[in-house]
Amino acid sequence: MPKPYPPEVRRRALDLVASGRSVAQVAASLGMSESCLHGWRTQQLIEAGVAPRSAKAVESAALRAAEARIVELENEVRILRKAAAAVEQVVPPKVRFALAAELAAEGVPVKQACLILGVSRSGFYDAKNRPPSARAIRQAWLTDQITAVFEAPRQTYGAPRVRAELVLGQGLVVSRKTVAVLMRRAGLAGLPLRRAAKKVPSSVTVSDLVARDFHRDGPNELWVTDITEHPTREGKVFCCVVLDVFSRRVVGWAIDSRARAELATSALGMAIESRSSGDGQIPGGIIHADHGTQFTSWTFTERAHRAGLLPSLGTVGDAYDNAVAEAFWGRMQTELLNRQRWNTRVELANAIFEYIEGFCNRRRRHSALHWQTPLQFETATHQPTANS
User: Fold this and answer.
1) Which of 92, 207, 255, 302 is most buried, with most CB under 10 Å away?
2) Burial state string for 101-133 with b = 16 or more CB within 10 A and e = fewer than 16
């Protein structure tokens, strides 16, 4: 069988024809058949779109495309069979029956779906017609309860707090693992809290009365305070809170458009009025803060001294020395501030107020309080507090 002409020979021969010489002249000068040169010329015109393709050429192209598609599908089938063999090892038949039902609903024949997923058709139809088990009914009911609990507290709870609400709030018996599995199946997920700790070289201070020991056995023994800020389209909003570390309750707060000493003093004044017995005194209590100018100002320290509080300042630039307040800001940032864009200062201030008084103190369950809310924890310890 003679070898085909190189592409360069073909191109040059067609150039000679294009220059005005006849096919017979070019074929004679090159010593090739006229039919060969005619074929090249016809193919050139077809590729250029000048001449239409013959039915045979179209059929040949369609056949080649079909053969290529068949090869592609065969490869996909091999891959699917390998994947199905691996799936059989880790996915239980009940789940594969559900997948087969989904494929059947999409128009895939049940026979093919069952073959690929490695289950029998008889088993598929048996599972389809079988009534739901008691366990499936309970899980469906639990999923409804979990969804209601999840949606109630701003859709922020993860599995541990959802379970705490089910067990402590509704008296149900359910494990944390079951709650986590059902939440995952329902597409429910709590908001993650990921705050990187600031690593700043610490410096020694003589006014730190806490030394990172935030455990207290009663209310009003240790308060912590701090200020945060958040932007709106009108400008920033500043918020200062005072928390009782015993119950993690926000006992005082203040919101303003500027972070002045009056902001911290107002929050401290609210805490003193709400927690004192009427004489405006919190004897022996500690108010712990960082070295912000608001907390080192004369007005703030003088207000603390008048109430019998001992001011305490953590190490400069060390978030761990005021960890309880920093953790509170982290939660509020995740559960409220970063969830939307705020238009006005009033809008954000109202949202912060509702978050503190309506959610954190009364409804949010804390792991440090054995999954109780601050108000529940204070009531359970039989410690009377003013304005509770």
Assistant:
1) 255
2) eebbeeeeeeeebbebbbbeeeebeebeeeeee
Rounded alpha-carbon distances, angstroms, from residue 369 to 271, 281, 354: 21, 26, 22
The C-alpha angle with vertex 198 and arms to 195 and 202, in degrees rounded to 5, equals: 150
75-129 per-position pLDDT tens digit: 887 877 777 777 777 777 777 888 888 888 888 888 888 877 778 888 888 877 7
Alpha-carbon distance of 36 to 17, in angstroms, equals 13
Structure tokens belonging to residue 279: 């004489």
Under a CB-based contact definition with an 8 Å cutoff, are residues 146 and 181 in contact?
no
214 φ, ψ to 5°?
-100, 10
Position 280 scores a pLDDT of: 80
State the virtual CA torsion across 354, 359, 362, 364 in degrees, nearest 10.
-160
Burial 71-88 (b: 16+ CB within 10 A, else e): eeeeeeeeeeeeebeebe
Range of the domain at 147: 134-186
Beta strands in 188-264 (DSSP E): 222-231, 236-244, 249-256
Clarify whether residues 121 and 139 are in a common domain. no
Q: Which residues pair with 240 in a beta bridge?
A: 227, 254
pLDDT for position 200: 44
pLDDT at res. 136 = 79
Mean pLDDT, the chain, integer: 82
Count the alpha carbons within 13 Å of 264 in the hemisphere toward its beta carbon.
28
The answer to whether position 24 is within a domain reads: yes
Within this chain, do residues 138 and 232 fall inside the same structural domain, yes or no?
no
The per-residue pLDDT for range 234-251, each reduced to its tens digit, is: 999 999 999 999 999 999
